[in-house]
């Protein structure tokens, strides 16, 4: 049987523009390697000839020949008589499912939608090599950069300034991811028993820190189509809270984007109540089809704001690099809260992110287009197979917040597990209970996988509606691990 073939036009679409630091052949080779490793180009697929790919990419024949040579040397391309150049994996590499499984007990063949995060971008290997090459400058010291590598702090500060919030490197603290950064901010600002204003639903990985601090939560609802600002501001004024935890930029899980006018009103209430804002901006770069300029960072409206950023959504979660942007008068408290949790992010990872940010501070247009394609495929499948479900199409972010006809999120989640589909139910995002009508469905996998996921969801919904689920309402929920992203 002959090998399946990939057309030059399709290969060029998958590779995208050959942008990035370093020679063009390396960029092309890195893009193809990631496509093969991710399974988007299946092992055994015949790649287009060098001549055809040269024409499709608009590059020189030497560039494509050199890229293929790199792939052959690394084991991602083999030559077969009669089949040309065929995608392969290096010897010793085991093909793994690419469903972003984060649970250690994901059944084989399951589709895991518990994680709203993307795979590594093209250019990652190139950035890692550049980071290693630049690392000798840092080897003479201890390796502990408690505030972060200076060049990365400057790059992050410059990006805030470009977004409309003038920032210096002294206002930036690099952390080991956004979850740690948020925990540092909460510990710096809250004492045991303090009140914190929180949206509901919200990103749930702040909950363990708040429980440890015995914080009292004043919850404000986020509706499917946005914030009820009058209710939010009245809650802030009445709560006497030390801090407010907010996600105004493509809110996780709803995908809502708070306007500048709304930010002004919320900031006014925070100033009146002398409440510091902890603002999660980890999804701010994931604008998909948002029209017009983005709103200013929340910190531009409220000086006492600790902004939490991360490379996990814009670049890759495997880097484990986040940051805090805060006014300098808060830094002493942040440093004191940090040391018990995180005494410095890995230097090499910081340098990798520095090289990636120099190429693109946020997601590339290619990755944005892939997300739009996946989102639209998920929406089309839901409308065709599960028309009883309701949702608002987000202009950005990484997930749909989906309303069920009945408050049966637990039952649907368990029935979906029986169908080989994993996702997070609404109560996991609840700051004050409830949300039993809701589930979160990220669109970070490919269109075909998401279409199959909806088929499994449809079967689960039918099972629950028929009352034939093996695990009924009132069933004790099995122990669950943390919701990672």
UniProtKB/TrEMBL annotation:
Residues 22-90 form the HTH gntR-type domain. Gene3D superfamilies: Type I PLP-dependent aspartate aminotransferase-like (Major domain), Winged helix-like DNA-binding domain superfamily/Winged helix DNA-binding domain. Pfam families: Aminotran_1_2 (PF00155), GntR (PF00392). Keywords: DNA-binding, Pyridoxal phosphate, Transcription, Transcription regulation. It comes from the Bacteria. Coiled coil: none annotated. SUPFAM superfamilies: PLP-dependent transferases, Winged helix' DNA-binding domain. In the C-terminal section; belongs to the class-I pyridoxal-phosphate-dependent aminotransferase family. This is GntR family transcriptional regulator. It comes from Knoellia flava TL1.
């Amino acid at each position: 049987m002959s090998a399946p073939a990939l057309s030059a036009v399709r290969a060029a679409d998958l590779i995208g523009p050959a942008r990035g630091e370093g020679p063009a052949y390396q960029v092309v080779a890195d893009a193809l390697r990631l496509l093969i490793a991710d399974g988007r180009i299946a092992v055994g697929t015949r790649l287009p000839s060098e001549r055809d790919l040269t024409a499709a990419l608009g590059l020189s024949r030497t560039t494509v020949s050199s890229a293929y040579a790199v792939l052959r040397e690394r084991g991602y391309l083999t030559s077969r008589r009669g089949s040309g150049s065929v995608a392969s994996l290096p010897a010793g590499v085991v093909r793994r499912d690419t469903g972003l499984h984060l649970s250690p007990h994901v059944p084989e063949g399951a589709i895991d939608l518990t994680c709203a995060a993307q795979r590594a971008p093209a250019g990652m290997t190139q950035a890692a090599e550049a980071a290693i090459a630049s690392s000798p400058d840092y080897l003479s010291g201890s390796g502990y950069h408690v505030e972060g590598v200076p060049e990365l702090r400057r790059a992050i500060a410059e990006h805030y300034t470009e977004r409309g919030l003038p920032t210096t490197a002294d206002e930036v603290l690099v952390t080991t991811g956004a979850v740690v950064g948020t925990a540092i901010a909460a510990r710096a600002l809250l004492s045991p028993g303090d009140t914190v204003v929180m949206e509901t639903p919200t990103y749930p990985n702040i909950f363990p820190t708040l429980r440890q601090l015995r914080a009292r939560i004043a919850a404000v609802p986020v509706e499917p189509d946005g914030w009820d600002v009058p209710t939010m501001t009245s809650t802030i004024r009445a709560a006497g809270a030390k801090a407010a935890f907010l996600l105004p930029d493509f809110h996780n899980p709803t995908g809502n984007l708070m306007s500048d006018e709304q930010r002004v009103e919320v900031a006014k209430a925070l100033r009146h109540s002398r409440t510091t804002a902890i603002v999660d901006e980890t999804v701010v770069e994931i604008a998909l089809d948002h029209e017009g300029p983005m709103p200013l960072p929340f910190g531009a409206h409220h000086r006492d704001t600790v902004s939490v950023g991360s490379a996990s959504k814009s670049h890759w979660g495997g880097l484990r690099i986040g940051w805090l942007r805060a006014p300098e008068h808060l830094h002493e408290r942040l440093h004191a809260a940090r040391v018990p949790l995180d005494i410095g992010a890995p230097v090499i990872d910081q340098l990798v992110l520095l090289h990636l940010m120099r190429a693109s501070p946020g997601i590339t247009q290619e990755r944005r287009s892939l997300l739009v394609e996946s989102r639209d495929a998920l929406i089309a499948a839901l409308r065709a197979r599960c028309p009883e479900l309701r949702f608002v199409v987000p202009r950005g972010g990484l997930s749909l917040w989906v309303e069920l006809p009945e408050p049966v999120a637990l039952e649907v989640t368990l029935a979906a597990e029986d169908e080989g589909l994993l996702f997070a139910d609404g109560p996991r995002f609840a700051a004050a209970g409830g949300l039993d009508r809701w589930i979160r469905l990220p669109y970070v996998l490919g269109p075909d996988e998401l279409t199959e996921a909806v088929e499994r969801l449809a079967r689960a919904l039918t099972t629950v509606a028929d009352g034939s689920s093996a695990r009924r309402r009132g069933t004790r929920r099995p122990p669950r691990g943390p919701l990672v992203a």
